[in-house]
Specification:
Length: 210
Amino acid sequence: MKKFIEKFQFITHDIPTLTHVEQAQTACSAGAKWLQYRCLTKDDAALLEDINQIAEICDDWGATLIVTDHVHLNGKADIQGFHMEDMDADFIKLRGELGEAITIGGSSNTLEGLLRLAAEGVDYAGFGPFSVTTTKPNQAALLGVSGYADAMQVLRDKEINLPVLAVGGVQLEDIEDLMATGVFGIAASAAINQAPDMEEAYIAFYNRIR
């Protein structure tokens, strides 16, 4: 089942200045059509409280709600999909558990990981990190523009049609060069929710990606 995948995906994050619900409201008010709720610090009751509020916001604005990990919450709230950060996750098994209607995304730091995600039938992939990021620090090598260009060329050569989103430290001035590599889109968190004006930052990113 082919899914709608948005070219600009906003990811909420634990930050002291804005709750996840506030981030969702501001992003949707700015025109967000895809929101990924990423919270790895709360118990199920608190997660569902957030998710139910964010689901209402997304429903009001016509936005897709994706939840990072927490697949055990499937069916307990109005969630359209899940993004798995575990790069060793079995996506074939996960698809069997969640069904065809649920959108499934996966993360990768390498071309080999992208190829596995494509083979296991994810609907889209987050590929990074592009640059230095404090949102989700890891030890993976920074890809830079050339890393995306090389990976996208391999996917084209293999005729693999996988929507790949650049993620990890992407700034507004990076978007044009990244989109020129053939990536499908961009995912961002800190560049939006830690900007002086979050709504203005969201709109600037959205317009640049288009």
